Amino acid sequence: MTSNPFPAGGQRPVRVWTAIVDQHATWIAVNPVQGCPKSCRYCFLNERGQTAVRPETLASPARSVELLLACPHYTPERPVAYYTWTDAMALPTTREHLKALLGELTRRGVPNPVVLITKCRVPDDVIAAITAAIRDGLRVLVYLSYSGLSGEVERGIRHEDLRENFPRLADAGVPIVHYWRPAFPRSATPETMTAVLDWAAAHARCTVAAGLKVEAAALPGLARLWPELATTPEVDKAECVYPRAFWDFIHATAATHPTHPLFHTNSCALAYVLGRTDRFGVFDTPVCATRNHCPTGQRDLCRAAARRRRPVREQDVAAALARHGHPDAAFTLDPAAGEVIVRRALPTNVAAALTQDLATRVRVQRQEDDPYWSSGTAGALPLVLDGAR
Ligand code: SF4
User: Other C-beta atoms within 10 Å of 5: how many?
Assistant: First the structure.
């Protein structure tokens, strides 16, 4: 375990726990093991007392699958990300849990794509378990979170192991998504950004690029790495915060890395790697048309699907709201804008489920205590900072 991540005299936050199964913006998250022995300085788990701790197992693999299938937001096609409140590769106990879970999912024929996210070395026995699961019909994607950050920022991470994961997984036939987030001014140099993307593009199917999420409680710690955060109003309200150099770089990859897709929307990366079409109301929006560097073949698929899709009707929206426990919520359907506006505060997990059910953008009034409020799905906007390094 790494040392206490909090500054001298700083209080370690009380350890809090999340639901074992919940709908997040683009996937269902399943967290049968919670707590991470690492302590990346930007990690949202810091404020929840869940970094630099021993992971706790809260549900067996079999129970995890039962809870997933019983989730009110569950449908067979939704991607499911496992172990998002730990790093599944960090400790042998969690890796054994993962291997048993993959066995349980294949044994029960659970059809949902499986997403695993890591910054740690994926050992050979885990790669073998993943490839066996893929052979048995499970769709498994590994997100490698690689952003050119130092050991001072990603404390406890062995970056050489992380880099080596790319060819090791690719050679085994495991689909890789390069997860590039966050960027700090110190990692937003042309040399670092080019080296990161060159390496990822050689092995991964695509990149998802995102900025830094800044929660109010995390601001003092993050401002030690990026002082401009402390002098910029409302950084905690942004969808993500980006150094200008990183923002410009990730919007120019169609020219610098023309054969490597790069997405600003995770849902589009998943659609591309899974051979699916947009179900999040992204197609033909400015993000689709001008920000995502999406291959022509994928664009053709999304266009054809959008033409085939029956327009959403008021009764579809009403039925979806009722299904998710909000039968009385008033809403406006704007077919021209491809948007549903719900005039009631709803949790973001419900909005995300509605978005996928209807394959349409869903905007809702803010729910003040919603932990996922500052997400793009919920309507927050990116913030780009110009300051000097
Ligand atoms: S065409 Fe647009 S909506 Fe479809 S995957 Fe590409 S970027 Fe996303």
Answer: 19
